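Example record

The entry below shows one chain as it appears in the dataset: sequence first, then structure tokens.
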Amino acid sequence: MDLLQLRYFQAVARREHLSQAATELRVAQPSLSRAIARLEADLGVPLFDRTGRGLRLNRFGAGFLRRVERVLRELDDARRELADAAGLDHGSIAVAAETLLTLTGLVREFRAEHPGVDIRLYQSSAATMAKQLRTGEVDLCFASQPLPGPDLRTRQLLREEVLLAVPPGHHLAGRERVRPEDLAGEPFVTTRPGYWPRELADRLFAAAGLQPDYTCESDEPGVTGDLIGAGLGVGLVPALSRHSALHTPVSWMRLDAPDCYRSLTLVWRADTYSSVAAQRLTEFAGEYFHRLSNRDPI
């Protein structure tokens, strides 16, 4: 077996789908299939169960994957250490967040200071971010809810109030504060399950004994304010988003509910090598969000 076979196996094992893995690796699917077959022949055991046109990692494959990821992680760490020896001009970082809009200002300022650092961005749910950290696909995650998994370290970047936004002409517009009970029967704009706005909304409605009317659910938390401004309903928006949505036609108010806040944290694995570029971005993010948190919410 060779290193390329191991990387091919890792990609197929993660996706359990040959064509998707081939697209990710930018190789022809027949070539990928032959590489996996040769690897299984070398090992003397099947690594996948074939069901029709599908693949499912079997117990041999699951055990082998754990070893392969350990080996490849060590090699990737060695590569990062060598890159670090050349300085920040040659670094690279893979980063995930629930919405990339959270990172636009940060990345712009960081790249201006460190133009040689290559940054790869992923938009992911909390569950996906946890998996990406576990497999080494990303170095850092910007998360607004706890990520499951061992050997994870976190750094809180900000804790901001979450506000209620309503469209123009809404009967609640102009009020400074509302209660959760005032939202009974209101069409509500939020995200799909797995993203922090949905988790917060579910908790607040449950605490108030209300049945939410989710009429608009998206996979992009950053567009909630625009959807509310379009008149699709009311919804929860973090306070800092108000400063980046000055032209969005919505009214903002506080919600009288306990712990109506978002905590943005930076999460990374403690048991892997942290590159100089990742360490610098960690410090840079702390400084950046500290400046933002000093703004008045409303």
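Notes for this example: Residues 3-71 form a domain with the Arc Repressor Mutant, subunit A fold (CATH 1.10.10.10). The mean pLDDT is 89.
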